[in-house]
Design a protein that fits this description.
The protein is mainly β. It contains no helices and eleven strands. 0% of the residues lie in helices and 49% in strands.
Length: 117
């Protein structure tokens, strides 16, 4: 059974950094594009960053230049590095596998990121 497990969230001051990790299991990780989404209180879930199977990346305008997505196919891991954090980055961050290869899309359980002084 495929599963995504996130870790690395926490409380950080404005301007600080965090690294989120998502470990995949039960799937051939290298076959799939992977993404990070976030959902702030009272707001819709939004795409933060996506990385394709070949390592190509794309980012939401709001995080471009501050966040970096990467993947390690040998470790079945996708990582989101968050720099220069702002209070408006506060949200639950979710790892996501889009539907592909006959598999449905898949979400992790989420990890809370809080940016506050």
């Amino acid at each position: 059974q495929a599963q995504l497990v996130e870790s690395g969230g926490g409380l950080v001051q404005p301007g600080g950094s965090l690294r989120l990790s998502c470990v995949a299991s039960g799937m051939i990780f290298s076959y799939f594009n992977m993404a990070w989404y976030r959902q702030a209180p009272g707001k819709q879930r939004e795409l933060v960053a996506i990385i394709d199977r070949d390592g190509g990346t794309n980012y939401a305008d709001s995080v471009t230049g501050r966040f970096t997505i990467s993947r390690d196919n040998a470790e079945n891991t996708v990582t989101l590095r968050l720099n220069s954090l702002r209070p408006e980055d506060t949200a639950v961050y979710y790892c996501h596998r889009p539907a592909a290869w006959g598999a449905s899309h898949l979400w992790g359980q989420g990890t809370q990121v809080t940016v506050s002084a």
